[in-house]
Every structure is written in C-alpha cells, then in structure tokens.
Amino acid sequence: MGRYLLRRLVQAVPTIFGVTLISFLLMMATPGDPISLITFNPDSDPETTMMLRRQLGLDQPPLMQYLYWLIGNDWVNIDVNGDGTGDMWGKRQGFLRGDLGQSIKYKSSVLELILQRVGPTLQLGIAAILVGYGLGIPIGLLSAVYHRSWIDQLSRVLSVLGNAVPSFWLALLLIIVFSVNLRVLPMSGMFDITKNSATITIFDTIPYMIMPVIVLSLGIIAGISRFTRAQVLEVMGQDYVRTANAKGLPMRRVRWGHIIPNALIPAATFLGPTLGSLLGGAVIIEQVFSWPGMGRLVIDAVFQRDYPIIMGSVVIGALMYILGVLLSDTLYGLLDPRIRFN
Amino acid sequence: MKRFIVLALLLGLMVLPLVGSVAAQSTEGTLVMRSIGNMSTLNPIMWTDGGSFNLVSMIWPIPFSVGRDSGLPEPGLTSWTISEDGLTYTFTIRDDANWSDGTPITSNDVKFTYDAAASDIVGSPRKSNTTSFAAVNIVDEKTYEVVLNDINCAVMQDFLAIPWMPAHRFAADFSDVTTNPLNQFSDISGGPYILEEIVPDQFQRLTANPTYWGGEPAIKTVIWRVMTDNAIANQSLLAGEIDWNYMEGDLFEQFQPRDNFNSETVYADSVGLFFMNWADPTNPQPAYDADGNLVEQTPHPIFSDVLVRRAVQMGYDKDAILATLGEGGGGRLVGSVVPWMEWAFNKELTPPAYDPEGAKALLDEAGWIDTDGDGIREKDGIPFKFDIVYSPVTNYFETTALVAQDQLSQLGMEVTVTSLEWGAYLNDVLLAQKFDASIVSWGGGSPPDPTSTEPLLLSIGDQPGTGFNLTSYVNPELDELYRQGRALVGCSPEERAQIYGEIQRIQLEDVAIDFTISPATVEVMNKRVTGFDPGPWWTTQFTISELGFGG
Fold it and tell me: How far apart are CA A215 and CA A220, in angstroms?
C-alpha cells in the first residue's frame, strides 16, 4: 500500500504543474490588471503606474511571468524607473523553492495569508461534511428501508429543496430569522469579537458555525441521501440478501450485516471529491457570513487581480482535490477487499 | 422511529437557548464600526484600499485636519507658514507630539516618510504625491520645510495623503519599507488609537492612545468589523452588532426601523461622468508623440461634433436618475466642481435641463436625420448607433445607463448597453479608451480642491492604458487655465474661483465630459454614540477620537 500511495503522489506532480501552467495562462488571458485597480485615482500618474508594473514584473510576457512564479526572480536586476539600468534585485524565490510569492494587495507572503485562512475553511468544510454524511446517510437508509412511505416522500422533498435552493438565499433567510428576528444566533464572523483571539477555543466558534454549516451541508445531505437510498435499494435486491432472508436470519441482522455495509462502500467515493471541492463551495458562504476563510481570500484576489494569491490558491485547491481523490481510492480499497492497490 | 424524532426535537430545543446566550455579545464600552474590506497593509505610503485607510488614519500621524464643513486645512499636529513666493511650506510640529513608545514625533520622521515615498526602490503608490517636492529640509527637531518645484495650490492634498512613519522603526536606507513587520501589525502609534489585535478577514481592535497629543479619546475600544456584504452590514446595524455604517440614499430609505439611529447625509467630492469619446475607439492614440508633438487623432464618427454631444447631454433625464438615489440623493453638476465646494463652484451656470425636443433639433441641425424611416438617424450613411459600457459597482451607473438607453433611443439613436466586471472594464475598456460612451465616477482628494479632476481633461493625460484623459479631449486653453489655477501666486481662493469658473464654463460649452450628478451617502450611527457629526469633508473615520457614549 505504501508503494501504491507513493506512486500516486509521484503521479500528482505533473498534474500540479499542468494545473498551474494552464491556470496561469488563463489568468493572464483574463481582462484586467492589478495595477490599474490600484492607481485609478487622482493621486496617481502614468509614471507611477509604469513603475509599479515594472517592479512587479507585470511588464514581462506571460511565459516569463510564469517562469518568475516558478523559479523566482532573484536573479533579475529590475529596472524600476525605466532608465535602462537595473535598480533592485528581485526578491521572489519561486514555487519550486517553496515561495508562493507576495500578494500585490496585502504586500505579504501568500503562503502566510493562505495558512491563516485554510484552518477556518477546513473547520467549516469538515463540519459540513460530518453533518452532511451524518444526516444524509441515515435519511437515505430510512428512505430505502421505508421505501415509498411518507418518510421516503419527505426525504425526496428535502433532497429536491437541498439541491434547488440557492445557498446565498438560504443564508440570508437564516440570518433574518435567527439573527435579526429571534436573535438566537450570531450573524457573522467566527467568534466574539470583543474577546482576544488567543483565548478562543473551537467551542467558542460553534454558535458562529451553525448557520454556515446548515447551508453548506444541505447540498451534501441532499446528494448523499439519494445516493444511499439508491444503493440500499439495489443491494436489497441482490441474491445474497434474498439468501440471507431465506435462511431465516432476523431482518435487523440482514440490514446491518449485509445490506448497509455493502451499500455504503460506494458512498466513500463521494468523500474525496467533496473534500476537494470544499474551497469552491465555501466561497459564497464565507462571503455572506463573513467567515474568515480561503473563500473570501480567493474571491477578493480574483476581483483585485492579485495573481500571486490566485496561483497560491490554485495550488492549494489542486492539492486538496488530489489528496481527496487519493483518500477516496484508498478508503475504497480498504473497505472492499475485492479491490487491490496494485 | 418516533423515539428518534422526539429525541432530536428535544435536543434542538435544549441547544437553541444555550446558543442564544452565547450569541449575545457584549459591546458595552466598545464602538463597532463596519469596514467594507480587509486591511491589506498598515504602511502609510503603501496602502491603497479603504480597509487599510480606516486603520492608517487612526494610528499614524497626519499633519493637519480639514474643516468638516469648510473643507479648508486647519492646524492640528502641525501649524504652518507659506513663503511669499509660494514655494516653501514651513511646518512646526507640536512639542507634545510623541509616538506611543515615548519617542518624540520629529521632522526626521516626516523627511524619512516623504523620501521613502519618492524612492524608486520602494515602489510606493504615493510617489506621485511627492513629485512636486524639490526638497524636504529639516530645520530643527520639530520644524521642517517642504520646497516645491513650482507653486502648487493643491499641495496640501499631497501632504495629507501621506501620514508619517516612525523613522526609528525602519531601516534608514528604505530597504525594509515593504517588508517591515509594522506593515502587518503595528505596536506603535502616533494617532488617537493603538492597535490591539488584528484577526484577518474578521476585525481589527484598537485601544485609546493615552499619550495622543490631542488627548486620550473617550471611547476606549474601537473595533473595525469586516463585512463586505452591504445587506448583511445593514442587518447587523439593525441587530446592534455594529454601531456605524454608511449607505447610499436609496438603501437608507429601506433601512427601517430607525428609532435607535442618528443619520447624516454626507456629500463628497465625487463627480458622476458620462463619457463620450472624442476620438475613434478602434484606434486609440495619445495626445502627443514621443517628441511632444500633437498627434492628429481620428475623430469619433458620432461624438466628435459638439452639437451631438449637447443633444445627448440634454437627451436623458438626470433629475430622474437623482430621484432614484433616495433621501438626500445628491446634486446636479454643471462641470467638474461639486456644488458644495462653494468657493470654486460657478453659480452663474445652470445644469442643462432634460429637453428631448431641443435635443432632436440639435441632431437635425448636426445633420443626423432619419432618412429611411427605420427610426434610427443617419448621416453620410452612418447610423447613429453606439454602445454605453459601464461596470455596475454603484447602482446609479446602471440606472444612468438604462435611463440614457431608453430616452436616447426615443430620439432616434440605437443605443446598446454593456455591463462588465470592474477590473476588466477599467483596464481593457476605460483606460484603453476603447468605448463610444461610458459611465463612471471620479473622487477627489482631501482637502477638497478643483484640481482633483485635472487628470480627466489635461491633454497630457491622454495616454491610452495609463492616462486619465479618457475621452481624448485636447484643449490648450483649458490646459493653460488648469496650470494657472494650480500655480497661482498666493493661491487666493477668489482669484482661483474665477479661473475654475471659466474652466467650468468651457467644460459646459464644449461638453468635454457630460458631468451628471454628485451622489451623497448617508452615515448611520447607533444613538448610544454621542458626538456624531460628520461633514462633507471630514467623515467619521477622522473623528472617532471625538466620539463618546451617552448617558
């Protein structure tokens, strides 16, 4: 299994490079420019604009800029004032040397900015997955076991709602009901802002997580419950279940011993991609609930054309997706002995 | 099954009150303000965003204040004299002004800051604020002088745009200006508040600076809470989670109930612009070539005729647009000076009235006539067809575009409307000068001065990609008037008013740009806060140290 994991990780390297190259070229092809957004004001002038572009290397062709991002620019003497002679050496070390660069907006390390925010995003995302799986699987099981009963019908309605209701709309609705009218849940943020963050524990954040987790997990509940239901119904029709019933095993034992374990194996395959897509799913929700995670950083970076942050987020997102899929495959192999890692 | 459902309901009922008690945050003694975005840097010569400005204005020394109603510079941390030739500004810093670590705020801090902003190795977006400085000289520890290259009547804006850095906390050769840890968290302050904690994307908490030269602020703790979404911010205001927010008048109309709030309509130096391109947008050219010779630009097929521009100007109803902005709304413009900059506003001019019949007559006179009866005017085989492009960053841009499209179409024009994301619009359309017509606004600096709109009309600013003369309007007479207005010996407001009055007259006569409206915003503060009195020129961000809690 160790060799299998190693092989998969090595295979991920060209994938990461491919993702970064394509993302960089797509980003460069997108209209807009970070410096214009900074200098569109009466205090600026064309000279300052050009100076900032040269200093950040934005006056270079796209492939050269990608090269700077990849291997750094500390070998380049930058001509900041445009007089034809170098004024300062570049400071970037490049992705290959573990440097994701410096944000144009924040003027600080992209890696630091991401590390500050990846925790809250994972906290929200993992909570949503736990709630989504924790409720979605039992609802799916109940729908299958009580096939065509009112429980099944209710589950279907919930599933349709979960998929159809826009998340931002649901988020606003929850805020108006629970924060503005009932005042039982905090509206936004991650913890009580009057307290020092050093004294905050994860338990202090729970009230702030309730509404975002409800919104994020609703889609997961809807998807996983329908999938579980379909799988259980399929397994219930298998020969070995019929045989177990025929030989007089109690229904409870048939369900817990034969139907559910076999039906849930494919559900594990959902876990990886769900983990991988945490970043994308959280963007809107983090914005609405002012949750200080990666989503807000990414959306701000896109609107500000903060290329280093966008690239850093692409790398982190790609890594999360690759690791998520790897986790799924590994779990699948562990749960189903018919599947071998070789 | 039933047991399970009952159990789940009971659990839910038990948890909610617990959560409710946790939800009630106590903000007694703490002022919570809404910040529209995250703080990006605290560096006073590197910041470019509103989130950073909120903190920069509270922790770094600014040399003077601005009269909230007059808009004139008023002595504060410094007092100053101006030499007779108008070239040397000598400032004296208050003797009792110290950094919060006890170090005196000195002339050396000022010189270090201005030199750093001007340095090529720093790459400061404030560099342009130092281009008129010939020298910054230290006279003594508390006195410094700034010598200008030429007389610059708007130079006070440059001084105010650059708060001071504590020189003793930076490398003297500027090598750490962009990397110094103070840029992300400052344990030192020269303003009314000291940073206590920053939680990225959530809030910044500050405590009153007991050694502030203006006296320790009455409110001991201020929190800037990051809320990017307007709707959520307004709900938070109603729920008491924040004390202060600002909004456009139309949003304020929907803001109910208001019993617990004080509000003030604030007019700023912001001008709404309806650009009509004077030059051919398919081939944007600069006004001057590399040798400084005037470039003959291909005129725009429709808007190069002043009769057409005037017809468009009077062909859509700006008062109707203003009415959509709700309470307070804003004001109509005749040129680039807002009406509340009273000393410079030309009161003899009146904004062009909405006059569709007059507009039709002008179009007929200009030779644009619907000859084939298809409802669209033509001239020399060219149909009167153009596109209005804008970015919906503010509601009234969209309103203006749609009103103009509807009403101008009724005059025999085929008008299309294109809405783009701000970054794409700004760089690839507006700055690139690739548009027929466009809608945007332009904000001025502080203290307010009519020079703020110079970049929009000076011919030297006609540089596709980087300049701000976006319509390629080239008028040597206006260039000269702008030069005179900025470089007038003595900077007498009366004499400058005559010059800017003439500038507005020419702008109106030429329809250089169709100046539309100047929108107002409404500041809303919870009634528990006293001393809330923002003015058009000095908003609440600058006056937090004057606020308190009532009763």
Answer: 10
